Amino acid sequence: MRLRACAALLLLLSACATSAPSPRESVPRNPKIANLQRAVKLPWADGGWCVVHEASKPWPVLVERCYQALDHDQIEFHDTTGRCAVASAGAAAVGVGLCVLAAPEIVAGAVIVLGVVVVAVAIQEALDAYELRHPYPEEAGSSRGTKVSSREGDAQRKPKLKPESAGQDWQPPVPPVPVNRTGRASCEPVPVPHAGKDDPHNECADKFPPNRYPGMDVLVGGVRFDALQAGVRVLWEIKTHRFDSYNAFVRKQEIEKEFNQLNKERKAAAACGYAFVVGVSSEKHKEALFQLDRTLNVVVTGCER
């Protein structure tokens, strides 16, 4: 009820948030990234997951929805201007805190963080993923007179290739893989669109691990994986085809082809410090993989087609 009492206040602050910034202030062109950069300086008890989920909303709305996820033992709010005490009358301390934090600009001394802030993992990962997708600052140029980089201009001049069919075998083009100083493929996870249009397969990859980047595969060490499990360093390969319905000959051919793929993925994951799990839809499929290699980590997802 206290949060609802602040609704009118937050609407007012949303309108204020569009005011012109100071000339000295560098404003990120992407509002979502601006919210993440602002939130990463605060202590979050949930690791920042709420902020990442709400990052595309206006800052006052994000604050309203994620206020309870703050580590309130590590943060203090001070209404240094007196504006919030009047505007949030009847909402007590919760209303004052919301008002102070949701302001378009934080006044000096209004928000005090006690101790050292441990950067929220989810927020930092979201920022890192954005930087990997936008490695060149000039690529973020706005459409109003900002010069676009030669890399982006070249990309715009090239015709976009469209697959002749949207079948499961087609995979979208993979973006250039970041490399480290040795020239080897980087171990930083790079989200890329799911390969193909196999909706049951993609849904299983998103929900079962669950996927840290829903709707996306991930490149690690130059190899594509179906999912990076949220909260842990575990990469997944998901299999949802109807293995049990194949005859013995086809099952043998399929399992040998799969094993070569899985062995390559497992080595790439291990080289980058990730665990590797294979998700299959049935016990029969799991047992067939175990007959080739008992060291594989295979989990029955139960995902159906």
Word description of this protein:
The chain has 305 residues and is α/β, with parallel strands linked by helices. It has two domains: 2-129, no CATH class; 188-305, 3-Layer(aba) Sandwich (Trna Endonuclease, Chain: A, domain 1), CATH 3.40.1350. Helix content is 38%, strand content 11%. It is built from twelve helices and nine strands. It has a four-stranded mixed beta sheet with strand order 6-7-8-9. Helix 3 (31-39) runs antiparallel to helix 8. The model is unreliable at 1-27, 86-93, 135-177 and 179-183 (pLDDT under 50).
Any key phrases for this structure?
disordered N terminus, 305 residues, 11% strand, 3-stranded antiparallel beta sheet, 2 domains, elongated
Task: Briefly summarize what is shown.
The chain has 12 helices and 9 strands.
**In whole angstroms, how far apart are the ends?**
44 Å
Biggest sheet, in brief?
Answer: 4 strands, mixed
Number of helices: 12
Category by helix and strand content: alpha/beta
The percent of residues in helical segments reads 25-40%
Domain DUF6310: 180-303
Keywords: Signal
Signal peptide: 1-20
Organism: Stigmatella erecta
